[in-house]
Design a protein that fits this description.
Length: about 180
């Protein structure tokens, strides 16, 4: 099992790493040059960010076809599943998903040599995952719960929910 927010951030880092490798390969093959119209490029990037913010806000609502919040609220409590949660697996232990990195790298390299602007699609997916991670973190903080994703019994990829563990002091002791 893996925390959902860690899964989303791991996906973002994997896609950004694949994009960095693809853009570096593109620069080495075609040469590093400034864009022809930097103002237009900034406008496209601004429009992409505006659409992503709108998309993330739609996912934060309870609208039937867009909402992810409904899925979070339907998550099965971990106590009902008789599963031991991994206490020592964090994002810093494995910041990049090797499978996702490889898949995006295989996709990004040919696209970057064919048309460099097509890498915007990959950037869209990374920023969408980043918005999803922000949405999950906000929901977890607001509800005092943790969302888990992973193989649970015969229901792979079903979301599970657990209580947030109590905070600890600097010495590691529980607060009084």
């Amino acid at each position: 099992m893996d925390r959902l927010v860690h899964h989303e951030l791991r996906a973002v880092l994997s896609v950004f790493a694949a994009l960095a490798v693809a853009l570096t390969a593109l620069g080495l093959v075609r040469g590093f040059s400034a864009p022809d119209r930097p103002g237009a490029l900034a406008g496209y990037f601004g429009a992409l960010l505006a659409l992503l913010v709108l998309w993330t806000l739609l996912k934060a609502t309870r609208i039937k076809w867009f909402s992810h919040v409904r899925d979070f609220e339907k998550a099965v409590p971990v106590e009902d599943l008789d599963v031991v949660l991994p206490a020592d697996r964090f994002l810093r232990d494995q910041p990049i998903s090797p499978g996702l990195f490889g898949m995006y790298l295989v996709l990004a390299l040919p696209l970057s040599f064919w048309e460099p602007w097509t890498l915007g699609v990959l950037l869209w997916s990374a920023l969408d995952w980043l918005g999803q991670a922000a949405l999950v973190a906000h929901w977890e903080r607001r509800n005092g719960l943790l969302l888990w994703r992973g193989h649970v019994g015969g229901r792979p990829w079903e979301l599970s929910v657990s209580r947030r563990p109590p905070t600890r002091t600097a010495t590691g002791a529980r607060p009084a």
